[in-house]
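User: Hi! I have a protein structure encoded as tokens and I'd like to know what sequence might fold into it. I'm fairly new to this, so please keep things simple.
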């Protein structure tokens, strides 16, 4: 769906089934992801305000929670899914950016050394993401997986190899294909505009970049709210 057609599509996406409604008559959407998703969640909420209740996990202080990588995901997924009564119509999720960062094997702290291991190597990432997906499938919600966005060259901290997002995304896509889960390819969406929307030598995005990603995420969710 083109961004320019977003407003028109909103009117066509309001659900009618009473058993899929909350008290305000709108379906529930859960967004799971790292700090990149924290950046775009507020924009998604604003764009879908007439179409859905959009939630993401919060920490003990009520602030948006960074879901981090699959190591944290397998530990927290049950708690996240139980939030707000645990009834979700659409779940948009992402895991990968933390998995591919380097971690000191002894201290377990983030590392800038490219020789240190990944937080989750590709094999462990595949295993843990599969476990998370099994939990998500059990909710019967419509699932959308967002690929990991690009890592710029220049030496981001902690260290992440610029080629790893595509490598890990291929693993994730294989899992999603196996389980018939839709993929929102944020990597491909962001890559052509990295210099415009991403902070230099940083995996995070500018305000403009978060808004740009938010439109793409909102449109993917909106398609799944159509009857």
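Assistant: Happy to help. Inverse folding works backwards from shape to sequence: for each of the 227 positions I chose a residue that suits the local structure. Here it is:
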């Amino acid at each position: 769906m083109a961004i320019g057609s977003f407003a028109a599509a909103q009117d066509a996406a309001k659900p009618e089934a009473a058993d899929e409604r909350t008290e305000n008559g709108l379906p529930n959407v859960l967004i799971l992801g790292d700090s990149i998703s924290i950046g775009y969640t507020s924009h998604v909420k604003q764009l879908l305000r007439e179409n859905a209740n959009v939630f993401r996990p919060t920490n003990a202080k009520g602030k948006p929670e960074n879901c981090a990588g699959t190591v944290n995901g397998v530990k927290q997924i049950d708690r996240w899914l139980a939030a707000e009564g645990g009834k979700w119509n659409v779940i948009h999720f992402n895991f990968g950016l933390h998995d591919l960062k380097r971690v000191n094997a002894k201290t377990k702290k983030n590392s800038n050394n490219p020789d240190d291991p990944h937080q989750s190597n590709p094999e462990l990432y595949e295993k843990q993401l599969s476990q998370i997906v099994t939990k998500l499938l059990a909710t019967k919600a419509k699932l959308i997986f967002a690929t990991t966005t690009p890592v710029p060259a220049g030496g981001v901290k902690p260290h992440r190899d610029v080629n790893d997002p595509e490598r890990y995304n291929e693993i994730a896509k294989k899992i999603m294909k196996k389980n018939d889960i839709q993929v929102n390819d944020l990597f491909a969406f962001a890559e052509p505009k990295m210099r415009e929307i991403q902070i230099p030598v940083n995996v995070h995005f500018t305000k403009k970049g978060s808004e740009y990603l938010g439109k793409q995420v909102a449109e993917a969710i909106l398609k799944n709210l159509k009857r």
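A useful reference point when you look it over: The chain has one domain: 27-225. Feel free to ask if any position seems puzzling.
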